Amino acid sequence: MTITYIVFIPGFNYEYNRSNFQQQRDFLDSCGIPYEMIKTKGLGMVEDNAKIISNRLQDICKLHSNIVLISVSKGSLETNLALNQYLKLSNMTSIKAWINTCGILNGTPLADYWAKPIRKMWMSMGLFFLGKRDIHITALLNNLSYKRVKKSYSTLPVSNIYTVNLIGVPLGKKRNKIFTEPNDGYSKLVDEIVDRGLTITEVGADHTFENIDLNIRFAAILNYVNSKVVALPNREASTIIN
Q: How crowded is residue 14: how many other Cβ atoms within 10 Å of its Cβ?
């Protein structure tokens, strides 16, 4: 029997927000579907987390033959770097699909916005009063800078990995005013899409997918990915949405 193994890659500061996939992990527990979440550093540097991801994926690929990656936001940027720069194709044959959720694949213009001296000072003060005094604000903002990331990393499709892009398309006031292009509040929508991948849009949702039942979306996408790429028998694939 073929079993799909789900690997979650969390997002920015995931210990304190929805990007830790807790709801989805609880859902998979209830379905008896095996998974794990790679424990990156919530406020860590992109390159450091990408190395953590690539090292763990090498081990996972030795244990499982049908792996589906699910990443979100900053975790997608780190996943892209791990797949395209730190992992060899020979080490990725077990990775069948990648679900890229609201991935800030080219960083975020918000980092450049907050990098201005006065704004950065206010952010530093806020983090200080929240007890987060070990964070190097300048390094973190530079690490997520749209200007820097767009030049430094290539968002390339990996030939043997089927990619699904899930993005929110907010309407009206949910769009961030510092952008001139369609965006979800954190990134331009066009920068969240891996070329040659299937793209699914959630109209009305923003980057956080707040008040959206993601379990329904992930169940449908996982069912599709299983039948399309992993090729589970119908009986097994259907258990994902039961």
A: 24
